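Can't paste images in this forum, so I'm doing it all in text. The chain is below; anyone willing to post the predicted structure tokens underneath?
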Amino acid sequence: MHVVRHGIGAFVSVAVLLTGAVAEVRAATVPAVAAEEPEDFGASCRTDVEGSRVTAHCQNPYPRTDRVRLHVECARWWDVDTDSAPVDVAPADYARIAGRCWKEVRSAWITHQPADPAPAPGPPRGPAPAPGPVPGS
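Text version of the structure:
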């Protein structure tokens, strides 16, 4: 009887471990849900710094318009940092934004903001159905 208890205990332990492993695998394979912003947004930008001049090149591969701004931080305390005016980069479009300092550039970066509202979720919109006969007439 003593041996049987150890056998049942081992069996129960293995079953619990396997059940836990299966639950872990199932939990790991559940796709993540997007919190707020869909992933199909944001132009791809790169910045080039040459001396005191900064140029940003942005290309938007997504279906939503991206409003980008170039921000330049100058190295000298007396040099004025700059922020560009917003530039809309339409889908499949390209934009170039330039900025500068009087002397050296400390850093430069791009910020992104949706220029148009997100599309409403729901069935795709199509042409309205043709009017048909009115029932009961």
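The longest strand covers residues 105-114. The two ends are 85 Å apart (CA to CA).
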